[in-house]
């Protein structure tokens, strides 16, 4: 992947909304065609990019949208789950992902490779990478490995920081300050348009929103709980 192509992708994402189109195992919507339709609807609504999970979903979505696609492959139930090995990352590339996101924590990876070793191999293959971070140390590690994009995806999930009620704007601002030369994407617990705007104000290059847009079960539960509380 040339530097020009990387810059082109980053320019398309800058200041924009990246919609995460994912369904959990066992859910009715967990089907590549369904995820592709949701991605198309998000693009029509103004999404600057799509984040999606699984090889079938990546392949289906890449063929249906014009915006950059960030691909991941979740595998496992604990520890490093997001694109946990070099093989997983290569498969996301082969499925057509424009950008591959991977766990950038210090936790051991199933194939025994470090984040730096994984990134080095993928750079040699022309990949544009996004580091899902849970701490400033993760971001430092990813930047040292020359990962193109940093993100706050794992803030509150990796054990390094407590989970905030909304987006971890403190960590976001810290990473932006630590790495002014590198795009930082905000992700995690962004539930409202106001949360998204606050993330951009804190210095985010772009904002990822998933559950609040693409997960009807969670949205229904929120409305249902509110109505139950109102009846009391």
TrEMBL record:
Q: Which UniProt keywords apply?
A: Carbohydrate metabolism, Isomerase
* Substrates-to-products reaction catalysed: an N-acyl-D-glucosamine 6-phosphate = an N-acyl-D-mannosamine 6-phosphate
Q: Which InterPro entries match?
A: Aldolase_TIM (IPR013785), NanE (IPR007260), RibuloseP-bd_barrel (IPR011060)
User: From the Swiss-Prot or TrEMBL record, what is one GO molecular function term?
Assistant: N-acylglucosamine-6-phosphate 2-epimerase activity
SUPFAM superfamilies, per this entry?
Ribulose-phoshate binding barrel
User: Which pathway is this protein engaged in?
Assistant: Amino-sugar metabolism; N-acetylneuraminate degradation; D-fructose 6-phosphate from N-acetylneuraminate: step 3/5
Under the heading NCBIfam families, the entry gives:
PRK01130.1
Stored PANTHER family? N-ACETYLMANNOSAMINE-6-PHOSPHATE 2-EPIMERASE-RELATED
Its job: Converts N-acetylmannosamine-6-phosphate (ManNAc-6-P) to N-acetylglucosamine-6-phosphate (GlcNAc-6-P).
What protein family does this chain belong to?
Answer: Belongs to the NanE family.
The protein in question is named Putative N-acetylmannosamine-6-phosphate 2-epimerase
Q: Which organism is it from?
A: Nesterenkonia aerolata
